[in-house]
Amino acid sequence: MPHIVSKLLVLSLFAVVNTAQALTIFTCEPEWAALSQSLAPEAKVFSATHVYQDPHYIEARPSLISKLAKADIAICSGAGLESGWLPALQKRASNRQVTDGADGMLYLAPFIETIGQHETKFFSTEHVHPEGNPHFHLDPERVSILAEVITQRLQLIDPDSQEQYQQTLIQWKKNWQNSIQSWQQQASQLKGQPVVVQHTSFDYLIDWVGMEVIADLEPAPGVPPTMAHAQSLVEDTRKSQPAAILTNWYQNDRAADWLSGKTGVQHLNLPATVDLKGEINNLERLFDHLLSQLQVAK
Ligand SMILES: [Zn+2]
Fold it and tell me: In the CATH hierarchy, which fold is given to the domain comprising 187-297?
């Protein structure tokens, strides 16, 4: 009897492997890896960057080239975020499926409205966000739109599994809407609170929650904090007593510590994206974590 059971088990395992044609998905940032994995649970998903890396600047290493060479689809933020390294990867990977304009190369920025486009006009060419702020994974509503965009693209390149992707999306959206409701409750208690930042990493979340950025430790977006600039923020920070000074895990946060020491305002070091190898390994957990940390700070 146990023999028959184990034979059946082997057969059914084979059936699962045979029906699911696992796609290989290359993502530029971990947030899209996490989202893609939720929308295509069978897929092999890889992220070019991780939470401790600055996604604006990475090296086009050989290991990344070989990952891109094998990909069926590449999913990236766009809006210039990867312009310093992705073109070099695409060139060396010479994989026609993921060149610009191909169905397998999905830039997400064109499908949503980016914020911060207005300010960029005042800055010089060294600005890192010429097409607006590309860190839009921190707005739950935009993520919801992009889940549909990703699903549609997966259906296009993997038409045999269209129905499966549709069902997965429907379930995902249900769960996501429930999460949004509980995040909205947390957000309502943070509304109107001032905050100091270092770069525009958290701007979409800050906007969504209704908090207000009163100062940025970066003198201009993408330009590292300087002592002179940090000193110029002391008075305003003391006066407006923000909920926190925010930095993210890949940043040098000495300036934030210094400003915190001068003003008594708490410095919060938070992940700007999911940590695929840690506990905060999907977008739900990321929002849970960020909102509860902000809650404690206020
Ligand atoms: Zn940025």
Answer: Rossmann fold (3.40.50)
